[in-house]
Amino acid sequence: MATPLDEATDLLQTMIRNKCVNDGTPDSGGEVRNAKTLAAYLAGPGLDIKQYESHPGRGSMVLRVEGTDKKAPSLLMMGHIDVVPADPNGWKRDPFCGDLVDGDIWGRGALDMLSITVTMAVAVKKLLREGWKPKGTLVFSGMADEEALGTWGAEWLVEHHWDDVKADAVLTESGEPPLPIPTRGGPKAIMVVGEKGSHWVSLKVKGTPGHGSIPYKTDNALVKAAEVVKRIAAYQPKLHLGGSWGEFVRAMQFAPELEAGMLSDAAFRAALDKVPVGLARLFDASTHTTFSPNIMHSGQKTNIVPDSAVMQIDIRTVPGEEGPEVRAMLREAIGDLWDQCEILDEDSNPSTASTTDTPIFRTMQSVTRKVGKAEIVPAFTVGATDSRFFRRKGVPSYGYSLYSEKLDFGEFMTMFHGRNERIDQGSLQLMLDLYEQTAREFLD
Description:
Blueprint: H1 4-17, H2 32-42, E1 48-55, E2 58-65, E3 75-80, E4 100-101, E5 104-106, H3 110-129, E6 138-143, H4 154-160, H5 162-165, E7 170-172, E8 188-195, E9 197-206, E10 210-211, H6 221-234, H7 243-252, H8 256-262, H9 268-272, H10 277-286, E11 290-298, E12 304-305, E13 308-317, H11 323-334, E14 341-349, E15 352-353, H12 359-371, E16 375-381, H13 387-391, E17 397-399, H14 409-415, E18 422-424, H15 425-443
Parallel strand pairs: 3-6, 3-7, 7-17, 8-16
Antiparallel strand pairs: 1-2, 2-6, 4-5, 5-18, 8-15, 9-13, 9-14, 10-12, 11-13
Helix pairs in contact: 1-3, 1-15, 3-15, 12-15
C-alpha cells in the first residue's frame, strides 16, 4: 500500500512533468493541467472542489472542508501551481523530468513551490481518508500565476471569489533550511511573517539617431544606458537594521561578533564577507531596498545609432519605502544622467506583514517544536508571494515549511529560479507531518 510519502513523490513528479511554465505573458502557464491533477487526486464523495479558469489555460482550484462549528477558526493552506521557465543548458537532468534519484525529486518547481503544494494536498487527503471532522473549516488551494504577481491566480480569486478562499489564517510558501553558520540556543526554523514590496520600473534612456559608421561623439542611447545600468547596480541605499531585521538577528542568536556586525551601519558590509555568499545575498537584500536592472532593449538596425534604450528594473522595497521614495533613490543612483531618462511604466506592490501575536502563529510554534525540534524565527522574505492579497484583507498569512538537513542552504538559494532544482524526500516527510499536525491542532 502506498504511503503518504509515496503519494507526495508521485504527485510532485506528475506536476513537474505537467510543465506549467509561466513566462509572465497572459497565455503562458497552462496551470489548468496542475489544477486538474490536484482536483483528481483529492476527489471524493461529498467533497466541495471548485476549479476556475480566469483566462484560457490559467487554472486554479479550491477545496473547502466545512467545519462542524461555524464559530471555530478556519485555515487556508495555499500553494501555487505554476513554475518559472528553465533553460536546460547547464542542468544535469531535464528540467521537467521529475526523476527520483537517490531520494531527490528533480525538476523545475520541486522547491518553488510544488513540493509545498503537494505535501499540503497529501496531508489533507490523509485527514479526509481517516474521516476527520474538524471543528474549523479547512481550505486548500492550488493557485495559478504566482510567478508573475498573481494576476490570474490569487489576486483574481480574492477579487472574484472571495467567499471560496476566505479564512481566518493562511499558510503558504516558505521557510528556509538550516543556516550554514553557528547559532546559540538550539535549532532554529525560519518562517516568513512578511515580505518586501515590489516596484518594477520601465526606464527609457534618450539619445539622438545617427549613422553607425561615424560614431564619434554621437549621442548613443545604448552607450548612455550602459552607464545608467552601471550606476544603478553600484548604488547602495540606506540600510534598515532595526525593526524586523533587528528582531530576526537577535532571535537567531548568532555568535556575538557576527550579531554586532549585522546590527551596525559601519560594520554591516564587512560582516557580510564573513558568511557564505548565498547567505550574504539574502542578508543584504533583507536590509534595504534593492535595484536590479535585468532587461535592456535598444536599436532598430545595426547601422543606426539608437535614439532610445529601454531597461526593466526589478526593485524590491522595504516597509515604508514606496513610490516617491523609490523614485528619489533611482534619481540619486543615476545622478547627472537623470534628465536623459524617462519613467515609462511602474508596477508597485507595497510591502506587507503579519503580526506574530495570532492563534495560528502559536500553533505553528507548537507544531514546529514537535515536528522540526526547533524554535521559529520570524523573518521577512525578499521575494513576493500570494500572501499579500490576504494580508491586505486583514488575514494573517505566513510562509511555513520545514526542510531536512540534507538540503544544503547554499544550493537551496541557487536552485530557486536556477539550475538543478530538486527536493529530498526527507523534506517532503517533514512537510507532510507539519501540515497534518498543524491542521489537527488548529482546527480540532
